[in-house]
Amino acid sequence: MMTHNPVLETDPAMKILAIHGSPRTIRSGTRRLTGFVLEGAADAGADTEMIDLCDFRVTPCTACEGCTLTGTCVYDDDVPALVARMKEADGIVFASPVYIDNVTGQMKIFFDRLADAIHYQLLTGKYGCGVATTYDSGGTEVVAYLEHVLNYLGVISVGGIGIATQGDAGAIDRAEPEARALGRKLAGAIRHGFPDPKQEAEIAGNRAYFKSIVEANRDFRTSEYEEWKRKGWLD
Ligand SMILES: Cc1cc2nc3c(=O)[nH]c(=O)nc-3n(C[C@H](O)[C@H](O)[C@H](O)COP(=O)(O)O)c2cc1C
User: Considering the domain boundaries, does residue 227 fall inside one?
Assistant: First the structure.
């Protein structure tokens, strides 16, 4: 006999975390645009959260290889907590203004600290998107870079939005519908999947490369090695 199971009919809680890298924090246009993305995701049923990277202690990587040896950075700052929050999320939004045709220094310093999370593919299976604003140049390239970093982490990107304001503050508000649609698309990907053979192939290629690191470090990163084995990634 078929029984009614209300639990199966309820969408599980969906968490989307935006990490925003403008030093202008609440005055930031990128933050405002990202807020629209999150509102779109919230309309589609997601729990959303925005992190201003500037509020956190993120020490630049010094290439000491401490994380490679132990899985823990030598710096006791906020990055492990930020990584934990990303691991708890189903969706990740990376957002940055364009600074000299790239992400802000704050964002890049954070990304450099994700090297170990990238090598061990800690965010595999999540979905994400990129958000950028600029006066004029670099918006498309920075969105592509943000999506590239998501892929490096094992995250499939559903796309991005890059707005060149040319000094017109209204440009960001006019992009609200597009930004909300991106947020809904991200929530939809988390709920229903988002097949993308090109990104899947890129992520698989990265993982094949990182496999050599996981195998080389197996004697001192044993639990991570066992985790990869359990996932069937070492076959
Ligand atoms: C240090 C710095 C570098 C910038 N570099 C560029 C640039 O290369 N090209 C550009 O068009 N705008 C550039 N801008 C302008 C910002 O990208 C633009 O004002 C952006 O929308 C600011 O976003 P925010 O309000 O979120 O901080 C730069 C601004 C700053 C402060």
Answer: no
CATH number at residue 134: 3.40.50.360
**Cα angle 125, 147, 102; round to 5:** 150
At 2 the pLDDT is 41
Interaxial angle between packed helices 29-43 and 176-192, expressed in degrees from 0 to 180 and rounded to the nearest 10: 50
Pocket of ligand 1 (CB under 6 A): 22, 24, 28-31, 97-101, 133-138, 165
pLDDT at 12: 64
Q: Which amino acid residue places its CA nearest to atom 9 of ligand 1?
A: 137
d(CA 226, CA 162) in angstroms, rounded, equals: 40
Residue 47 alpha carbon to ligand 1 centre in Å = 29
Q: How far is the CA of 134 from the centre of ligand 1 (A)?
A: 5
Q: Is residue 208 part of a domain?
A: no
pLDDT at position 212 is 97
- Domain containing 71 equals 12-195
Mutate-to-test residue for ligand 1 from 135, 141, 145, 161, highest number of ligand atoms within 8 A of CB? 135
Q: Is 127 left (phi over 0), alpha (psi -120 to 50) or beta?
A: beta
Task: Evaluate whether residue 132 is within a structural domain.
Answer: yes
pLDDT tens for each residue of 178-203:
999 999 999 999 999 999 999 999 99
Residues in the chain predicted with pLDDT less than 70, given as ranges, are: 1-12
